[in-house]
Amino acid sequence: MNLSLEGKTVLVTGGSRGIGRAIALMLADNGADVAITFRSSVDAADEVKKLIEEKGQRAKAIQADAVNFDSAQEVITEITEDWEKLDVLVNNAGITRDNLILRMSEEQWDQVIDTNLKSIFNYSKAVAKPMMRNRGGSIINISSVVGISGNAGQSNYAASKAGLIGFTKSYAKELASRNIRANVVAPGYITTEMTDELDEKVLESIKEETPLGRAGDADEVASTVLFLASDLSEYITGETIRVDGGMAM
Ligand code: NDP
């Protein structure tokens, strides 16, 4: 057993930037053909596609709103028709629309639940049959420590990220007999454009609450995803692995 993904095909949703980009590139580095989806960053997505191809792997960058149920089916059909199979799905696309409950709008609630939770249903459902035909697969859903601990001002985000942990365990139980594994990675504070929006004071307090005393890097999340995608984790399903410098322990 090893970390190699040679001969495997992967889809990373929201692979144009941040953590998704790092995951896509690291899985390609380890031998996988990688498709990414994105919502609007056409140039960034094209760059990721080029970088994957330069590593000698097949690549796709597909513009597809993860909220849209039919579009998830179309993305999976395109990949499984062109590449014959899909071995690994990484549900990474996500957003924040932070606000205190008293000020949170219905729109802020719905956008976050749809993007972070419904998208996971959309893609996990769409891959179930192709993965059953392929006699196995690995699904990795990106949660957050906020889904474990909660966070003032992020009730919508926490609900979506906690919800996906319950979804993943149920999915893992339903499909384990078909050799399909489903696991969760829960990052702590990772430096990306999403966290660029936080103000300095919040960032300092996050670092203080992190036993390892620093922010994480997108590659440190990607390496955990690589492990869960590979055969090295073949007896792990329904698990949540925190990559948070100890923040939520
Ligand atoms: P970024 O904002 O840097 O990147 C988000 C990615 O998701 C982009 O590729 C974006 O595409 C894509 N995306 C957003 N909405 C949609 C949609 N509706 N359909 C398709 N793609 C979409 O975020 P991060 O890299 O920081 O976060 C990635 C994941 O990790 C998220 O699920 C987030 O909740 C989670 N996470 C992040 C943490 C952090 O500290 N950064 C901590 C814990 C969890 P486009 O470029 O087109 O906009």
Describe the structure.
It is globular, with a radius of gyration of 17 Å. The chain has one domain (9-243): NAD(P)-binding Rossmann-like Domain (Rossmann fold). It contains nine helices and seven strands; from the N terminus they run E-H-E-H-E-H-E-H-E-H-H-E-H-H-H-E. With 249 residues, it is α/β, with parallel strands linked by helices. Helices cover 47% and strands 15% of the residues. Helix 2 (42-54) links the parallel strand 2 (33-38) and strand 3 (59-63). The longest helix is centred in the middle third of the chain and has 28 residues, at 106-133. A seven-stranded parallel sheet has the order 3-2-1-4-5-6-7, with helices on both faces. It has helices spanning 18-29, 42-54, 69-83, 106-133, 146-149, 155-175, 193-196, 200-208, 218-229; strands spanning 9-12, 33-38, 59-63, 88-91, 137-142, 180-187, 240-243. The structure holds NADPH dihydro-nicotinamide-adenine-dinucleotide phosphate. NADPH dihydro-nicotinamide-adenine-dinucleotide phosphate binds next to helix 1, strand 2 and helix 7.
